[in-house]
C-alpha cells in the first residue's frame, strides 16, 4: 500500500481533523506500516499530537527525528521492534505499551525507564517506583563502579601531558574493559548493564578528560542522599515491570549461622595414598553456602503446597556464538526448573523467578534447551533460546523464552514422557523418552517470523522397558544413544543414513550384582557422561554409583543387534544405602564433578579430577576401593508455618558449567540454590 499521506493522517485522527497541527489523537494501527513509512517531515507537522496508536504494524524501529514534542501516550503493540532507544526523542511520554514485540526483552524495559524520565505506565503496569530505582540507585551504583575501575586500572596509564592519539587509545581500552568487567544485577539484565556502563564511562571521560560525548548527555537528577540503596530489591523491581511471576517463599531458615560456609564432611579412610591425601586437602578448600530456598511450583500458587515433586532443571545456554557473543558472563546463571503444573526460569544469584509457565492439566517431568537461528524481518538471522518441556500428557511444549511465548506443541507420545534432550550437533533434533517404552527422535523445525513451524518424527528406538534417562555419546552424538531403563542400560545406533526408522537396541550392558556376578537385570535411574568416555550410572544396587568406560565396553565394530556387553567398570562411588529409586545424578564435565542427592536431603559431591587421567589410559586399572564423597552438603533446618520440613528427598542436582551455582530439586516443592565460594 502507499506511504502515509496528509489525507490519511487527517482521516485517521480521533476525531477527524482538517489540520495536522490540530490533531491530538491519531490511530495508525493495522496498516501494515514499516519503518520507512514514518516520514519525519510529515510527522513534524503534528505539533500537538498527544496520543499515537501504531499497534499491529510491521515496524522494526523508530526513525530518530519524528519530532512529536507533546506526545504523552504511545501504543506499539504487535510489531517487530528490535530497539527502543529512539524513543528518547519523546521526553514527555507518560504511557508506553509495546507488548508482543518478540525481540524486545526485560533489558529494553529498563532502557526506556531510564531514557523517559516522565514514564509512569509501561505495558499497563505502574513502574514509578522501579523507574526511580533504575534512574537513581542503579545509576549511582554503576557510576561508582566505573569510577573505581578507572582509578584502579587506567588512571596511571595516562601521562600528565597526553596526545589526542593517547586519549583515543585509552578511551577505547577503557570502554571495552568496563563493559567486560563491571557486573551488576541479574544476568537477565546484562545487556542493559553494559549499555548503561558504556554511557556512564563516556560521560566520565568527557568530564575528566574534556572529550566529546557520542550521544546527548542525559539530564542529571538530584539524588536523595538519605535514600536507602537497597530500598527495592531486584525481585521487587522485576515484579513492578510485570515480567516476574514470583510466589513469596514462606520458608524460614533456623539459626542464621548455618548459612555460613558449609565445609566438606569427608569420610575417613584407614589408608590414603599421597594423591588421595592431596585431593582431600584440596577438597577441604571447597565450600558452598545456601543462597535461596524457593517455593515457586505450588499448585494453584498455594503457600501450603509442600507435596509437589520437582524433577528436572537445566541451565540456559549462553548466546555466545553466532549472532551474539556475550563477553561479560562466563556462564549462565538462569536455570529452567519443572515440577507439577509449572515450568520456572530462575536467576540463581538473586533468587528471582523471571518467568513462569503453567498448564493446569499437566505434570512436567523434563526440560531441555536449544538455540535456534531464526530468520527475522528483512531476511536477517538472530539466535534465540528455545525451551522444550514435557511430562505426563506426552506432549512437548516449545517456548520462546525471550518472547514469553509458548509457540507450539508436539504430541509426541500417548503415554507420559520421562525425559527429553536435544542433540548437541543438530539444533532442531529432540529426543523424547516415554513410558510407552519408546524413544523418539524429532525434528522440531525452525519457526518463521509468525511462529509457523513443522515438526517431523525421524526415528523410533524400541526399548524393553521404560527409559528413565538418556545420554548421547559425546564423541559420536549423531551415532549412538544410551538409555538407563527400568530393567537395564541399553545402546542404540541412531545414524540417520540407515533406512530403518524403527530400531531395536544394539547392546545391553551387564553390571555386577550384589554378590559380584554380572547381570543385565537392574534399574538404571541415573546416567550421565563425566567426559568423552567415562559414564556415570546409578542402579538398583544399594549404596553404589558406577563409573565405566564407553570405548572399552562397547565395540562399535561388533556385529549384530541386541548384544550383551559387560560394562568395563573403572570405579565405584560410595553413596547412600537407600533402596529408593529415581534420585538421579548429574555431572559437571569441565570440573570433573559428580553430584547426587539422597533420601535425607543431602547432596553428595565427588571431585574426580585426580582419577580421570588414569582412567583415560588404555591400561587404566579399576580403583579397588569405593571412592568416598569429597563433600556432603547437609540439608539445613527449614520451617514452614513454624513446622520443620523433614523427609526431604533430593530428586535432582545440577550445577552450571563453571560450578558456580548448584540447583537442588526436592520432593517437597522446594528449589534450593547453593553457591560455591
Automatic annotation (TrEMBL):
- List where Acidic residues composition bias occurs: 215-231
| SUPFAM superfamilies listed in its UniProt record | L domain-like (SSF52058), WD40 repeat-like (SSF50978)
Q: Matching PROSITE patterns, A to Z?
A: LRR (PS51450), WD_REPEATS_1 (PS00678), WD_REPEATS_2 (PS50082), WD_REPEATS_REGION (PS50294)
Q: Can you quote a single GO CC term?
A: kinetochore
**Keyword list, A-Z:** Centromere, Chromatin regulator, Chromosome, Cytoplasm, Cytoskeleton, DNA replication, Kinetochore, Leucine-rich repeat, Nucleus, Repeat, Telomere, WD repeat
Name where the WD repeats lie: 410-444
Indicate, by first and last residue, each region the UniProt record lists as having compositional bias (Basic residues): 258-274
Q: Where is this region: Disordered?
A: 215-235, 258-286
Q: Which InterPro entries match?
A: Leu-rich_rpt (IPR001611), LRR_dom_sf (IPR032675), LRR_LRWD1_dom (IPR056363), LRWD1 (IPR052489), WD40/YVTN_repeat-like_dom_sf (IPR015943), WD40_repeat_CS (IPR019775), WD40_repeat_dom_sf (IPR036322), WD40_rpt (IPR001680)
GO MF annotations, alphabetized = chromatin binding
Q: Where is this gene product found?
A: Chromosome, Centromere, Kinetochore; Chromosome, Telomere; Cytoplasm, Cytoskeleton, Microtubule organizing center, Centrosome; Nucleus
Q: Where is the Leucine-rich repeat and WD repeat-containing protein 1 LRR domain?
A: 7-200
Q: Which Pfam families match?
A: LRR_LRWD1, WD_LRWD1
Q: Which GO terms describe its biological process?
A: chromatin organization; DNA replication; establishment of protein localization to chromatin
- Organism's domain of life? Eukaryota
Q: Which residues form the Leucine-rich repeat and WD repeat-containing protein 1 WD domain?
A: 286-676
Its family remark reads: Belongs to the LRWD1 family.
Put simply, this protein is called Leucine-rich repeat and WD repeat-containing protein 1
Per the UniProt record, the source organism is Podiceps cristatus (Great crested grebe)
